[in-house]
Amino acid sequence: MKKIALALLATLLSIPAHASAIAQLKAFVSDTKTLSANFNQLVSSKNKHEEASGTLEISRPGKFRWSYNKPYEQLIVGDGKTLWIYDKDLSQVTRKNLDGALGSSPAALLAGNNAIERDYVLKEAGKQGEVEWLSASPKKADNTFNAIRMGFSNKMLVEMELTDSFGNNTRIRFSAQQKNPALAASHFSFTPPKGADVVSGD
């Protein structure tokens, strides 16, 4: 009986900790109109292991600027209608319709008002240290990501893990987050540089 009581107590004590990740996601989406942060990204699969870092800015709904500084410069901008991907080394710009691309990148996913709740089934995934985790499974089989995990602390997103349909695992850690900073509208517009090759994506 004592063991049963202790087990029940442990279960009851675990409920608040394990019930807060989705609540923090909802608070993050509703309270965060703009966001700036630094990020470190690790992409791994059987054959590769790539690290990158840069900065992120978001202005809801649908506007974002994801800038890679290392190991090479690349800029991804969503202006509300069009997704622009600029590879400086290749001098190439890829242009896509933002509606079709929304959810196909972490930045686009975060910039949507309810993209996660609309397109994914959310489940609590427990607590690790000070971070509350949730898992998100796509409702449609043709979604870019097979699985997503998001970690929150103090109503701020601190980490994401994404597994795509090719088996690549992407882990992104956010730091120096600023919630609702004043961001210039020009940060979310893009004009292809003179001489750059512009191609249309799928």
Automatic annotation (TrEMBL):
Alphabetic keyword roster: Chaperone, Lipoprotein, Periplasm, Protein transport, Signal, Transport
A Pfam family annotated for this UniProt entry: LolA
Keyword Zinc: no
Signal peptide: 1-19
InterPro entries: LolA/LolB/LppX, OM_lipoprot_carrier_LolA-like, OM_lipoprot_carrier_LolA_Pbac
Main location: periplasm
GO cellular component, one term: periplasmic space
Transmembrane annotation, as ranges: none
Biological process, per Gene Ontology: lipoprotein localization to outer membrane; lipoprotein transport
HAMAP family: LolA
PANTHER family the record matches: OUTER-MEMBRANE LIPOPROTEIN CARRIER PROTEIN (PTHR35869)
Functional description taken from the UniProt entry: Participates in the translocation of lipoproteins from the inner membrane to the outer membrane. Only forms a complex with a lipoprotein if the residue after the N-terminal Cys is not an aspartate (The Asp acts as a targeting signal to indicate that the lipoprotein should stay in the inner membrane).
UniProt similarity note: Belongs to the LolA family.
Assembly mode: Monomer.
Name of the featured protein: Outer-membrane lipoprotein carrier protein
Source species: Aquitalea aquatica
Gene that this sequence comes from: lolA
